[in-house]
Amino acid sequence: MQGLSYSGEAEGKRQNYYVFKGSEFFLVLSFSHSKQGAGNFNVVESDAVDYVYERFAGAKGVTTNEVVERGRRSRHIPNTLAALNIMYVLAATGCASIDTRRVGPKLFFNIKGKHA
């Protein structure tokens, strides 16, 4: 965990997610609203973030279910929680944005296109 650097923040439906970059992974942190001093963290491999960005660059309205479906043959995306954390990393690092025009419980992400 040494040498982590702050990468940014992503605003979810109910809370904010703070993303830190390590040498080969990202750390996604969130804090509990109901329990003071409590929260959660998830480790996301950098390779998994790169994998999703490669496959979805330029796509609009992407859901975590779509990410899991398209990545099911890879080791990078075992479930929707992993996909959601990958999407939060992309949003926090500026490679994606959460589409706030859509309502309901599901999050939709717009992935930026690759730069040539």
Structure characteristics:
6 strands; 3 helices; two-stranded antiparallel ribbon; alpha+beta; 27% helix; 116 residues; four-stranded antiparallel beta sheet; globular
Notes on the structure:
The protein is of the alpha+beta class. The chain has one domain. It has three helices and six strands. Helix 1 packs across helix 3 and helix 2 packs across helix 3 (80-92). The longest helix is centred in the C-terminal third of the chain and has 13 residues, at 80-92. The chain is globular. The mean pLDDT is 92.
Q: How are the SSEs placed, and which strands pair?
A:
Blueprint: E1 5-11, E2 16-21, E3 25-31, E4 39-45, H1 46-56, H2 64-70, H3 80-92, E5 96-98, E6 109-111
Antiparallel strand pairs: 1-2, 2-3, 3-4, 5-6
Helix pairs in contact: 1-3, 2-3
> What is the rounded distance between the termini?
33 Å
Question: What percentage of residues falls in helices of 4 or more residues?
Answer: 25-40%
Q: What's the number of structural domains?
A: 1
Outline the low-pLDDT stretches: none
Strand arrangement, major sheet: 1-2-3-4
In short, what is this structure?
This protein is of the alpha+beta class and 116 residues long. It is built from 3 helices and 6 strands; from the N terminus they run E-E-E-E-H-H-H-E-E.
